[in-house]
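Here is the promised in-class demo. Please do not try to memorize the tokens; focus on the logic of going from shape to residues.
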């Protein structure tokens, strides 16, 4: 299979998810992931994107253990590819804090990850990135430049 086939399947998955056709989106993302796993190097960042897309669809379908599993795999790939202090790591950690049960269930029935354990390093990454970007920003420049810099992970 050609990598462009995976890209097309990802686009179809995104379109299906946008149309609230989660089962179709899941199938497209799974097929794309299978292709990517064959044609891309182990730990390629594109795998993490597809895994995250699949994780979001699993959450929509209330397949919470599957969502946590693929997001955890995406986190490991991103840590290896970008390093522990990259904004993509913070974003993935925040995704992993999402409740793994319906919000309308009583709190006693909810299964939530240890939010504080995941949010603390994510917040630290965000704060470090903002500080680094502020240090190179033009004095009096718009704050959007600092935020954009911080979220991209580059100075």
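The designed amino acids, position by position:
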């Amino acid at each position: 299979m050609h990598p462009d086939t995976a890209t097309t399947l990802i686009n179809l998955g995104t379109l299906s998810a946008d149309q609230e056709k989660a089962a179709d989106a899941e199938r497209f993302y799974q097929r794309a992931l299978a292709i990517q796993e064959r044609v891309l190097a182990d730990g390629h960042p594109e795998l993490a994107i597809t895994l995250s897309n699949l994780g979001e669809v699993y959450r929509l379908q209330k397949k919470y253990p599957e969502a946590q599993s693929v997001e955890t795999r995406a986190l490991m790939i991103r840590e290896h590819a970008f390093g522990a202090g990259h904004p993509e790591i913070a974003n993935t950690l925040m995704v992993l804090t999402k409740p793994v049960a319906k919000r309308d269930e009583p709190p006693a029935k909810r299964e939530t990850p240890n939010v504080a354990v995941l949010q603390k390093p994510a917040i630290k990454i965000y704060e470090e990135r903002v500080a680094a970007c502020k240090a190179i920003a033009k004095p009096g420049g718009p704050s959007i430049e600092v935020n954009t810099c911080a979220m991209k992970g580059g100075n």
